[in-house]
Specification:
Strand content of chain A: under 5%
Distance between the termini of chain B: 33 Å
Structural class of chain A: mainly alpha
Radius of gyration of chain B: 20 Å
Number of strands of chain B: 11
Shape of chain B: elongated
Largest interface: A-B, 77 and 77 residues
Number of domains of chain B: 1
Number of helices of chain B: 2
CATH topology of chain B: Lipocalin
Number of strands of chain A: 1
Helix content of chain B: 10-25%
Order of helices and strands of chain A: HHHEHHHHH
CATH architecture of chain B: Beta Barrel
Strand order of the largest sheet of chain B: 1-3-4-5-6-7-8-11
Number of helices of chain A: 8
Helix content of chain A: 55-70%
CATH class of chain B: Mainly Beta
Largest sheet of chain B: 8 strands, antiparallel, barrel
Oligomer: heterodimer
Radius of gyration of chain A: 41 Å
Number of domains of chain A: 2
Chain lengths: ~270, ~180
């Protein structure tokens, strides 16, 4: 019995590979007729284990290998043609169902589960926080208008020759500023805090300046009211009320610096 | 004799299978997005990306992922706003998948088709240009993904009521090495 007589044809294995395996087992096949079937099985097993993946890759990828080269050449040519700022094509689509077969999955990357698990509660807190801080930002900008107007009218309200009308206007603008300021501050103070977040960067300066303009915005109207009363009585502003203007200027400067700290890059 | 042949075959099998499924692992990475506003530019940088590549049948599939909250811009308040705007608590990872012919793995210039999942959206960027420098077993890959805020249906954040620009290029620097 010749090796070629052994019927080892298995689906999916090229005949040339089968013949090669058979030629490796002639002595074994001739020595013992009982072992022929075993030899077939061994040859087939070896075929399946060893050559099948390689053969399959060879047969199925022989053409793509050529294509790869062509694609690579074309890609390189496109790179050379397109230059450095070649715009890439963008396409939005629905999220994919999952990775393709043989492709790595997120589980392979070993991220801790707390980093990959969606947290809708945290998202809701962040949404609320951002919403409140957006209002804080807008109200803060609106507040700068009466603040500037109060500072400007202050120079007309504090001199010797002042009228009650200019003092009233200054007082009204001051009251508006204080009201808007505390409304602005409340949106920052009551915005939800996010745990495990340490303040860093310009926001630290922004928050630190609040320790100056916050008390300043409390003191300024109180001192202003005292000064207003003294002037209304025809007295010269004296005592602690005379600190109204310096405290107001410091407050306004700190307030402006707080806005600038998060608006400009230093 | 036959034992030797069988052992050789088994050894060859192991080698053939290993060669057919070569794997790559991301050793180092720097991902940096840039957002621009008339008053200033900001870069958010992450070094926390992880990645893996599997080569099979002459094609390599790569996956890179980074936690959204790992991007730091130097301002904690801005980073929290970024996580909120990008729905980063709901979709905590940004993932990038790409496929490359195994024969192109050593090419100095790569044009990759990227599938980016971010903020609950999947966006394809085709023909994104990357450069590759091979230093021993390490493959240094760098390039820029021309992402836009609107690609991911993200509402553009504003500062002083002025929104940031739509362009949000993401600079990518990666070092890959074959998995041991």
């Amino acid at each position: 019995m010749s090796p070629s007589d052994i019927n080892c044809n298995e689906p999916g294995i090229p005949p040339s590979v089968i013949r090669g395996i058979q030629s490796m087992f002639p002595l074994f096949c001739r020595a013992n007729r009982m072992s022929q079937k075993l030899a077939c099985k061994l040859a087939t097993l070896a075929c399946l284990c060893c050559f099948a993946p390689a053969c399959s890759a060879q047969t199925t990828v022989a053409l793509p290998r050529t294509e790869d080269r062509r694609l690579l050449t074309a890609s390189l040519a496109r790179v050379q043609e397109s230059g450095t700022n070649a715009p890439a094509q963008t396409q939005q689509r629905q999220p994919s169902a999952g990775p393709e077969q043989g492709a790595p999955s997120l589980g392979d990357l070993g991220f801790p589960s707390e980093q990959t698990k969606p947290n809708p509660e945290q998202q809701a807190r962040l949404d609320k926080r951002s919403h409140m801080l957006r209002i804080h930002q807008r109200l803060g900008l609106v507040t700068t208008v009466p603040l500037l107007a109060t500072v400007i009218t202050g120079s007309m309200a504090g001199g010797r020759r002042t009228t009650s009308a200019s003092r009233d206007l200054h007082a009204a603008l001051g009251a508006s500023t204080a009201g808007l300021y505390f409304a602005t501050a409340s949106y920052a103070i009551f915005a939800p805090k996010i745990k495990e977040t340490r303040s860093r960067g310009p926001i630290r300066l922004h928050k630190a300046l609040a320790w100056i303009h916050g008390p300043g915005m409390v003191l300024t109207p109180i001192l202003g009211a005292m000064a207003f009363t003294e002037r209304s009585r025809g007295e010269k502003v004296h005592g602690i009320a005379s600190a109204h203007a310096p405290v107001a200027y410091i407050t306004a400067i700190a307030y402006g610096a707080a806005i600038a700290s998060v608006s400009f890059k230093f | 004799m036959y034992k030797k042949i069988l052992s050789s075959l088994m050894l060859f099998t192991a080698v053939a299978l290993a060669a057919d499924n070569q794997q790559w692992v991301l050793e180092q990475s720097t991902l940096a997005y840039r957002v621009s506003h008339p008053l200033h530019q900001t870069d958010g940088v992450s070094h926390a990306a992880r990645g893996k590549g599997i080569c099979h049948e002459n094609e390599c599939n790569f996956l890179i992922a980074a936690p959204v909250k790992s991007f730091a811009s130097g301002d904690s308040n801005r980073d929290l706003h970024m996580i909120q705007a990008t729905r980063g608590a709901q979709f905590p990872l940004v993932t990038v998948r790409t496929r490359i012919p195994e024969s192109s793995l050593n090419s100095p210039a790569l044009l990759l088709d990227l599938e980016v999942e971010f903020a609950g959206q999947t966006v394809d960027y085709s023909q994104v240009r990357f450069q590759q420098v091979i230093e021993g077993a390490h493959h240094r890959i760098s390039g820029t993904v021309p992402a836009k805020v609107s690609d991911f249906k993200i509402e553009r954040p504003t500062l002083l009521t002025v929104p940031i620009k739509d362009e949000m290029p993401v600079r990518v620097e990666m070092v890959w090495k074959p998995a041991p």
